[in-house]
Amino acid sequence: xxxxxxxxxxxxxxxxxxxxxxxxxxxxxxxxxxxxxxxxxxxxxxxxxxxxxxxxxxxxxxxxxxxxxxxxxxxxxxxxxxxxxxxxxxxxxxx
Length: 95
What we know:
Helix content is about 75%, strand content about 0%. By secondary structure, the chain is mainly α.
């Protein structure tokens, strides 16, 4: 017998136009509206985690650079590395 997580039900009210868009998106993708909504929620949560990781990395880098007395060129190099490492996060945040 499978161990299933207990589910809860939520109800939201959205404008009819948004409901139609959601329904069309689900139909076009071959998914249920529930699946689409869960994907959006999970994606939003992941984006939030990515942004938090980016902030942490940036803060740590700035802290390290000030304690090591790095010159401007070294700080720019580190900033570039962060931008490359988190390029996908920057793209998501810019949307």
